[in-house]
Amino acid sequence: MSFFQWLGRIGVTSHPGGWAATEKLLTNLKPKKGELAIELGCGHGRTLSHVAEKFGTKVVGIDIVFPLALQACQRLIKRKAEGYAIVADICNLPFRDETFQVAWAESVFVFLPKPEAFAEVGRVLKRNGRFGIIELTWRDMPFPEYCEQTRKFMNVPRYEVLTLDQWSEAISRNGFEVRIAEKLPSHSLPSPLHQWLSDLRDLTRLGLGLALQVSFRKWFEGARDIVNLFRYTVPAIFVAVKVK
To answer: What are the Cα distances from residue 92, in Å, to 7, 88, 118?
Structure first.
């Protein structure tokens, strides 16, 4: 069973940096009322619904995991937010060229082939559209062996952490000008108590949910591998503007 199938069964997602990183990304991304925005890998829709409610932005979420996309839709409906979520592949988006003004993702592109994924984001964004991501980057020296260990545990085709410069270059190749490329100080940033508790709840549900899907030995070995990876990585925020 792959990591994405696990997420579908558990019905929750989490990302390094937590909600404080999300708010920092959105502060720099500046979604506006009436704009059309897409979240790439929307998970269960926490950020998606927040953007629709707080900024009045029209939102579209996509996720490759059907139960998560369904949860995101239900969350939007419950909150009477303007938007929807569908199942789709980021490398083959079902939208016309230059559809969106804003796009973002949180801990998604580590799982994707970078050239194809960033090219597709560039295709569906309008000129001067803004694109932001939160992704892991190396603190100092890369340790790709920890990526490979994590990939095997998650049973996914790809798991690739890049350096700050490599992330920026991969984004820039597709008609973007990178305006912000910033390492964050840790995987868990200070945030208001209710948001910190929400992050903790999601992370706990994720960890316990995974423990119920695999043997204890595999879960323990996987947790150890991920801890090794996190020792040498930190979240980073990137914000870019489509200029071509």
So the answer is: 21, 7, 11
Q: Is the dihedral of CA 94, 96, 99, 104 positive or negative?
A: positive
- The whole-angstrom separation of Cα 205 and Cα 215 is 17
Q: Is 152 helix (H, G, I), strand (E, B) or coil?
A: helix
Supply 209's token pair: 């949910």
Domain at 3-242, CATH from 3.40.50.720, 3.40.50.150, 3.30.9.10, 3.90.420.10? 3.40.50.150
d(CA 83, CA 77): 8
Q: Summarize pLDDT for 79-137 with one digit per residue, the tens.
A: 999 999 999 999 999 999 999 999 999 999 999 999 999 999 999 999 999 999 999 99
Report how far residue 189's alpha carbon sits from residue 56's, in angstroms, rounded to the nearest whole number.
26
Residue 58 φ/ψ, nearest 5 degrees: -80, 125
Predicted TM-score of the model (pTM): 0.89
The sign one gets for the Cα dihedral 184, 111, 103, 169 is positive
Size (the chain), residues: 244
